[in-house]
Amino acid sequence: MKVIIVGGVAAGTKVAAKLKREAPDADVTIITKSSDISYAGCGLPYYVSGVIADRSKLFVNTPESFSALTGSRVITNTEVTGLDRAEKKVTAKSPDGQIAEYEYDKLVLAVGASPIAPSCPGINLENIFYLGAPSDADALKAVLDSGEVKRAVIVGAGLIGLEAAENISAKGVRTTVIDIAPHILPNLLDSEMADYVEGILADEGVMPFTGVGLTGFTGEGKLEKVETTKRAIKADIAVLALGFRPNTAFLADSGLEMIKGTLVVDGNMRTNDPDIYACGDCAIVTNRITGARRWSAMGSTANICGRLAAKSIAGKDILPYPGVLGTAVARLPGINIGRTGLGEKEARDAGFDVETVIAVSDDKAHYYPGSNPFIMKLICDKASHKLLGIQVLGKGAVDKITDIAVTAISLGACLEDLQYCDYAYAPPFSTAIHPFETAVNIMLNKLCGDYVTMTPAEFNDGKAEGWRIIDTSQIPALNGETYVDLTQVNGDVPGLGKDEKLLLVCNKGRRAYMLQNRLKHFGYTNTKVLEGGTTFNRSLLED
Predict the structure, then answer these.
(1) 380 catalytically annotated
(2) pLDDT at 453 (0 to 100)
(3) N or C: which end of the chain has fewer CB within 10 A?
C-alpha cells in the first residue's frame, strides 16, 4: 500500500509514525513545503521571550531522524500543487521549479493552515510579524533581542495573540492588544469572564482594546503606527494574530467537500473520497455535544485525528471520532484560563434549557502558601443536570479543573455523578472539598432553589436596580453599603424589610449564601446572592 501524506507538522507526522507501526509494510511518504517537520508551533511564543532558550527543543524530529525512526520517507521543500483523484496522484513542485508526480493508494491531506494576512495599507512595512512557523519566531525574536523595541501592538485577541502579548510584555515591552470583537477570546470565554480577564491584563500592563478594527500601518519604511478604527497607536513592532486560513486553495477544483476552506471528514477522517483522508488544521470535525461541524485548530486535535486516520488506513476496527469539546488552556499575564464544552450562548443556541453559576473557591488549602482563588463558570442543562461546559480563571492549575470537566462531559455525566467523586487532596494541591466539586455543589444548590442568585451578567446589565446591596463580608468591604455581620444574625435584622429586595454580597459568595439561608429561616422573602462576590465583580470594590 502506497500512502502519500501532504504536510509534515503535527497531524502528518503522527499519521506516518502510527501507520508504520500498524502496517510496517506500508510505503509511506511525507511531502512537505517546509524544510522542517514535526515542530512545536504552540511553543513559538515562549521561544520568542526566551522561556524556551534552546531553539532546537522546538523540533521533535529532523527529516532524517524521523525517517530513521519510523521507516517513512520525507521529502522537504516541495509543494504539492495539484491533485488528480481519477489517476490517484498528486503533482508537486521542488525548489528548482521541477514538477514531479506521486502516485498513491491512500492520500492524507495534513496541509495545515497559515496566518491570515490582512489587505491594508502599510502591510509590507518592516517590523510587522506573524507567529505561524519557526522562521516567524526567529525574525520576531531577533528584533526583540536588539533592545530597540519599546512598544508593541498585537492585532487579534485570540489565544495566539494573547500568548504573544504575554511573552512580548515579559521582555519589558509596552504591549497593546486590539480586536474587532466586543471582548477578548470571543470564541472561548463568555462575555463576563472575558471582561474579568481584560481587567487583569490591564493591571499587568497589557492593554486590551476591543471593538477596535485594524485599518492599516504607517511609517517611513519601518512601522511607526498601527492605524485603527478608533485612533492611531504608536508601535515599534506589530504581531498579526488574526486567525488562520487552511492551506487548501490548491484543492478548490478537486471535488472534495469543504466548508470555508476546511476539508469535511467523517469519524474515520475520510473525506468524501474514500481514498483521501484529512486531519489537522485543514480539516473540520464535529462538536462532541451537538454534532455540529467544529473547526479545532489545536495540536492536540491534530495528533488525535492523525492517530485515528492511521488506524483507519491500516484497516483496524476503530470507534469513530466522537468530536471535540473546544478545550483550551492558556497562561496569560497575571492569570491562567481554561475552558471546555459549550459556552452559555452556544448551549442556548443548541436548544438546551441552560442554567449557569459562577463559583469561587480556593485552588489549594487557604493556609498553604501560594493559595489563590479559582473562578469557575459551570453551564448545565436544567432538565437532565448534564454538565455542558466550564470556564475557569485563576493563577493556579486551571488545567486540572478543565480536564475533569472534559472527562465528565465526554462520559455524559450529570452533576449528581460528580458530586461525591474521590478527588485528590493534600494542602499543596487542592482543598478538602475539591474546587470542582464545590462548583458542582453550588450549581446543585441553585438548581433546587436553595441558592437564589443574581449572575454577574445580570448585575452588569442593570438588573440590580431597585435592589439594596448588603455587604456580608467578614469585615466591611463596600463603602456606603449596609453591613450585616452573619455571626450576629439570630432573628430579625433591624433596618431590613422582610419583603425588601436584598442583594447579598461578600468576597466569594459563601458568607452571602449562609446569610441568605439564615434570613430565609427568619422570614425574609426576597434575597439574592451576587455570584462570584467581590472577587469576580471587582467594580464593586472600585466604587
Answers:
(1) no
(2) 97
(3) C
